[in-house]
Amino acid sequence: QIQLVQSGPENKKPGASVTVSCKTSGYSFLNHGINWVRQAPGQGLEWLGWTIPNSRSTDYAQNFQGRLSVTTDTSTKTAYMELTSLTSDDTAVYYCARDEGVCGGDCSAGPTAFDYWGQGTLVTVSS
Amino acid sequence: SYELTQPPSVSVAPGQTAKITCGGKNIGGKVVHWYQQKPGQAPLLVVYDDSDRPSGIPERFSGSNSGKAAALTITRVEAGDEADYFCQVWDRSSDQYVFGTGTKVTVL
Asked: Which of these, B57, A4, B55, lies nearest to B85 by C-alpha position?
């Protein structure tokens, strides 16, 4: 079965960086985009960025450009999200989520739905 | 930036129908997806591409997108449908996904 399993909770100081991993299984890793979404406590969902393993193309939400990096390791079928210059506003649960659509070649983010999600990783930023 | 507006809450009695709207500029020209999220859980896709249902999602969940607003309708509501629901679109003008503000469905 398709699974996305994320790394454990993180506690960080303001100004630090955090890396969250998302290990996938049960499907063709190369041909589905991976998205990153976060949810602050009691708040809604916010899309952060996207990457497609077969070309390593990326797309980032405007608010996170320059501070966010999403990458993949095709040998381990794992996606990574790194967020730098953390502030307390970055305290949230971070999710990885798979694109429902299949990418056969030169693809970009959108407009496909997210059909499988990781369990979420709580990142707490506090001094 | 593009915004999607949902009612904060919808209350419905068991067995009745719940309708959740999702409004945004020219939403009829966009493809809308819907997610269900229960407390402490990751979101679950319940409707994609305006009106398609993923495998395993009951027929009680249906979607529409008429142009002025998109909607998720849940018929024969059950206690287990109590959750937050979010709509989602891809905004081409900003090249990013946008989620709705979310609607809490309460089963009375």
From this structure: B57
